[in-house]
Amino acid sequence: MLLCDHAVVAEGKLYINGGGWSVRPAAPMPMFLALKFDVPWDRAGRPIHIELHLVDEDGHPVLRRPPAEGAGTDTTPRPVVVAARLEVGRPTGLTPGAPVDAAVAIGIPPFPLPPARRYSWRLLVDGEQREDWVVGFATRAE
Fold first, then answer.
1. CA-to-CA distance for 140 and 94, rounded, in angstroms?
2. β-pairing verdict for 128-139 and 23-24
3. pLDDT tens, 76-131?
């Protein structure tokens, strides 16, 4: 998992621009998460649920107020969470038992974060979380 300015998947490959940063302005700016999965052979053809949760340095969910889209819209702050479903097939000619590559690029719309703070994106795969499935960053003291 890598933080970057822009990422896209084409022909199964990740194309990354401005990748590997860990400090950003507090002001709104787009960010992308580039992820590369090694899907076990026996999980090919079955849906895999992935979630990314943005948390602060204390492990609390970062809350964001949804943009107002008209009268009566609920603008209650909600945790910043990205959910997706991943499903891969076995490529022709892949050695039986070999993991299947799966590249994912997720764009995060710009929104402000408080300055001089630490944050991290925590990945969950089918509800499972591991210590190394985390990428952190800080906001500059503007």
1. 45
2. parallel
3. 899 999 999 999 999 888 899 999 999 999 999 999 999 999 999 999 999 999 99
Rounded to 5°, angle at Cα 56 from 48 and 35: 30
Report residue 9: phi and psi, to 5°. -105, 130
The CA–CA distances, whole Å, from 26 to 3, 9, 67 equal 15, 27, 18
Which residue range forms the structural domain that includes residue 135?
2-139
Please list, in sequence order, all residues whose beta carbon lies within 8 angstroms of the beta carbon of residue 93, skipping any fewer than 6 positions away. Answer: none
Q: How many Cα atoms are found within 13 Å in the side-chain-facing hemisphere of 86?
A: 25
Mean pLDDT (whole number) for 3-14 = 96
Q: How many domains does the chain have?
A: 1
Q: By 3-state DSSP, what share of the chain in percent is helix, strand and coil, each rounded to 5?
A: 0, 55, 45
Domain CATH for 50: 2.60.40
Return d(Cα 105, Cα 116) in angstroms, integer. 27
